[in-house]
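Course assignment 3, question 2. Fill in each field.
Student: A.L.
Task: Predict the tertiary structure for the chain below.
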Amino acid sequence: MELRHLKYFVAVAEELHFGRAANKVHISQPPLSQQIRQLETELGTKLLHRTKRRVELTHSGRIFLQEARATLAHADQAVARVKRAQRGEVGRLSIGWLPWSDFTALPSMVGKFCERCPDVHLDMHYLNMPEELSALHAGRIDVGFLLRPFDSGALRTELVVRHPLVVALPKSNKLSAMAQIRFSDLASEPYILFKRDSSPAFYDYVISLCQREGITLNVRHEASHTLTVLALVAAGLGITLLPFGGHYAHSDVTFRRLVPTPPLFEIALAWRQQNESALLQRFIETIRKHRQIKLAPRALQQGLQKATKR
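Answer field:
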């Protein structure tokens, strides 16, 4: 039994006339009659009661009509879904997500993809840098957002976010009265450091900046997640350096610019070279379209003011 047999039967059952049904499925009447007889032989039952004047469905025919329609509808849905999958419109995408990614431009960029492809299921994995690189190389995730620099190996990468580094400090801290803070001001303050095992690249980035400016941080506390670090800052336990994309919100934390302005904090999209899925390519295209790699000084200042007022 093939789908065409079901299509032929449904046409005859709906028209109750072999001539009209033959025109509907674009074949001549004798082959159509032959196909229906073959179908009845295979099923071992009569589906149609034929007379010279009319064609009627038997009891078995009425039941089979319901099932045939359902089968054809399911087949049409399967074909449509496969075609959508070929265009990257449906499916599941596994994404590596660093803990502080929530506070960058990345959520809004991923949101744009969800608007474009609402039927794609995103499977988000909160991972630190080493875990994310391992998952990418092993194929446990399809794509990831990583802080540059990192050893890309067989991965393809593309810069998608570039944010400035800012100081996060308690509103009660005396430095919060300053419009901008010098690196030398950091040395005397208790510092909350992101643990190196959570993001080696960010840890090394901060330490190298301080070494370049000739200061040693007074590290009093360490934490792995941005929310924890911000909570410690809000509690007055110290200050920290964070990439700023205008997405922090904490009533007890103030954000200030650093001088001299440090190099920008860069986040890249990474995926395996051999992964050529249409879904991944559509995701990459969307992120590329909405990437944020430029931030004017005025926009930064407005973002800092907005975050501080929350």
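Instructor remarks: Confidence is low (pLDDT under 50) at residues 296-300. The domain at 163-264 is CATH 3.40.190.10 (D-Maltodextrin-Binding Protein; domain 2).
Grade: pending
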